[in-house]
Amino acid sequence: MSKTGLVIRREYLTRVRKKSFIILTLLTPVFMAAMFVIPVLIMSSKGQEMKKIAVVEQQGHFFKGKIHPTKYLKFDYLENVRLDSLKKHFDELGYYAILYISPKISYIPSAVQLISHKQPSPEVVTYISEVLKKEIERQKLLAYNIKDLDKILKSVETDVQLQTIVINASGEEKETSTGIAMALAYISGLLIYMLTFMFGAMVMRGVIEEKTNRIIEVLISSVKPFQLMMGKIIGIALVGLTQFVLWIALTLVLVTATTGVVMHNNKSNKTIKIPTNLFSDNAGQALPTNQANTKIIGQKELSQAERILNALKSVNWGLIIGAFILFFLGGYLLYASLFAAVGAAVDNETDTQQFMLPITIPLILALFIAMGTFQNPESQLAFWGSLIPFTSPVVMMARLPFGVPVWQLIVSVVLLFITFIGTTWVAAKIYRTGILMYGKKPTWKEMWKWIRFRNY
User: Fold this and answer.
1) Distance CA 128, CA 133 (A)
2) Model confidence, pTM
3) Structural fold of domain 51-156
4) Where are the domains of the chain?
């Protein structure tokens, strides 16, 4: 076995046997699985507490019976009550909140209040707002004396759930989910950022520790500095890959097991009933059934939980995981070589601050560009950020779930690994000189001289 291989083996085995590695490897999949499963469990939850809301109108009873109860909301319409007195005792009467409606609501949107002791959930606020909005619109339309207006409004009331379909180069159609794409972009970009920084800093701390303990002097007597540096970088990279593969495997097991239970408990065989006269041409004539609703009647009505699970199944996990490994390796190797150079140049972690800033700025910038990529993955900033090697590992992973041309993916990977070769050459120059320097704080000028040295 080569000397570099021995260093790799030592670095790998030393770290994978640590308790911290084992604990982090086991706990992280639980956290990652929770991010996928908890939203599904929340949407399929049946244990939500019933909330009673007291409805008080200042004048008249225009909204009485118009705010219909839901599975978890009940509305009591109170008459002849004093609002000030009710505010003091509504919780004692078993009410979650008071909905106070002013007669000015028809022309002042804010003339309605939801009074409670706790911050109401967005679901409650949205439901009440939408119901009041529709009722006010209905009452304004009634002023035009349109015959059978209620029946007309009820017949045209429609719920729309937008499906996104992507057509690939071969013409194959596949249903996707923008929400799932955004979640994947955020998680994968953030993971690349965190892992690159975490394992890169691990390389730096390892070099500083060996240098401080004077172990490095013994190692250098039998191993060349470049072999030692590459051994540490590759060894820790393998630790990261091992951890990542275990995370993916354990997360898939947890997600599959949990979602299987959720799917079993949420099976729905409801059929959507669509009136044939709902679909008509411009002349108002009903379309034949085979043109209008043949493909709709008989389909299963999917719950939100099932929609999320179906969207997860439609993701090209092979591409996502493969690209993640490539960009993690490229980004880690690029930054780890620079971290190793910094660790070799200083005597303790306190002295690393002046050299860490130029290294961390591109990583932080990449994270900010990735956040903007969620909203506009085709922007010029996202495009160049995914090609420039110092930002591409994070930004490209943020763009990938939204679809990236193959040539851009290839160019990004090639540029990343070419830049890694360049940074390794620079880091090796600094490492060879700095690894045996003690007691003196290096400056940028001195490090530039080390890079220019030809003989060691």
Assistant:
1) 8
2) 0.61
3) D-Maltodextrin-Binding Protein; domain 2 (3.40.190)
4) 51-156, 179-263+310-452
